[in-house]
Amino acid sequence: MLKVQNICKEFCGSKVLVGANLEVKKGEIVAVIGPNGAGKTTLFNIITGHIKPTSGKVIFDGSDITGLTPDRICKKGITRSFQIVNIFPRLTVFENVQIAVFSKKNKCFSFFQDAKDMYKDEVEELISKVGLLEKKDIESDLLSHGDQKVLEIAIALSGDPKLLILDEPTAGMAKGETERCINLIKKLSKESGITILFCEHDMKLVFDIADTIMVLVRGKTIIQGSVEEVRCNQEVQKAYLGDIC
Amino acid sequence: MTGLLTTSLNLGIGYGGIYQFHHALFYGLGAYSTALMITKGNMPYIISFLSAPIVSALASFIIGIICIRLTKLYFGMLQISLGSLIWVVVYRWYSFTGGDDGIHGITMPDLISSTKGAYYFTLLIVGVCLFIIRKIINSPFGKTLQAIRDNPMRSLSIGIDINMHRLVAIVIAGLFGGIAGMLFVVVDNSVFPDMMFWTFSLEILIMCLLGGMYTFWGPFVGAAIIVLFRTFISGYTQYWSLLLGVILTLVIIFLPEGVFGFIVKVMIRRDRINA
What we know:
The complex is a heterodimer of chains A (245) and B (275). With 245 residues, chain A is α/β, with parallel strands linked by helices. In chain A, 37% of the residues lie in helices and 25% in strands. Chain A has nine helices and ten strands. Chain B has 275 residues and is mainly alpha-helical. Chain B has helices spanning 2-13, 24-39, 45-67, 72-92, 94-97, 110-113, 115-137, 140-150, 152-157, 162-188, 198-211, 218-236, 240-254, 258-274. The termini of chain B are far apart. The mean pLDDT of chain B is 78. The chains are: A alpha/beta (245), B mainly alpha (275). The A-B interface holds A 48, 50, 69-72, 74-75, 79-80, 82, 86-91, 95, 98-100, 102-104, 107-116, 118, 155-156, 158-159 and B 135-136, 138-144, 146-147, 150-151, 153-162, 165, 168.
């Protein structure tokens, strides 16, 4: 479904990515792991079009999407959440999700319809999916950090994506919140059949839910394989896992 | 009339987060196009009136396309420069625009030539326009615009073409600015180049700030305050703008949401206490 081929990216002379490769098959949960500064977020930003790569290709559903703008890529079926909370702080939870639904339905240039209750059922279903229904009329600014991260996922889901990219979905979450988030990701994959690509620092979480894992070290893909393969790969152990294995 | 002008500006700046620094330009262009159509073109009144929003919308579209690639302050600066260019043309082109004298004694159709007629005509048009603007703000388009204001990057990631939205918002703001300019001609029967000088743009920006940018009625209230101020205080002292400056400073420090924004906040708080 998604193929990333030999992506390189330089920022003012410093090479952040020097050959990242990734393959995501339909229905899978794929994790990208790597030490701090390995280039995980940069890789995601390149896939979603926020950054243009210096060289390499991103192919989605058979067509080359390298260097398209983020809004085009979103319309092709890839949506994402961000590592650092990135929502519409002044709008309520309901409105946050509603805007994304407007965008999906191409209703953004409708001038005279009253927006207030449009797509109410659809929006509420999305919100209840991530478990925020009783907080739907709260300004999203006032939510806890964990709830905001979950709201991110709801916004990303509203685009009805084929591929959902989550950049450290549990970063900064309390323990209970992390668990809730993991269950949510599992549920999405199982029930809605969404393909998910995510990156994460929490090893336990990665080994728990990922079908395949890609290891990125200093901008280079070392291996992509099943949990077992990755766990036992010597290079990975040396570079990253230390002595957990 | 000034209220309509500020409300239309607020569509861009308050709801769209666009630094529309030279809104007076579209006001002036609307006024001039109506005036010139009547005096030089001998066009029927209805066409002259309609030309105002069309010319202003067209101008804001062209200027918008040039400026839209820049963001924030840079957008505003470029808009001021381009606008000043047009202002100079109007100011110097004596044979066509009347230069710095402007155009005076424009005759109006009988029905609205009296003060009373002009008043009701203005009231009607302003009412209709405000209704439409309010409708637009509450539409999916308006909501999307506010989302772009709050977080352009996120908007892009959910598939919104933000530049296209901003451009449309500018054109709509320009269109209603043009209507306000047309109404000025109806009321005052004259036009002059100062209407589109950038200091006037600043003044309407101040009206928005004073009234409250994030509310619908705020800019309208702000415009009313300043116009009343000018009318009454300037009767006593020519330094009325000094007093205005002091008041504005106090408002910005103590009421960052503006006068009307503050009233709304107090009302919400009282509601909560009562509930």
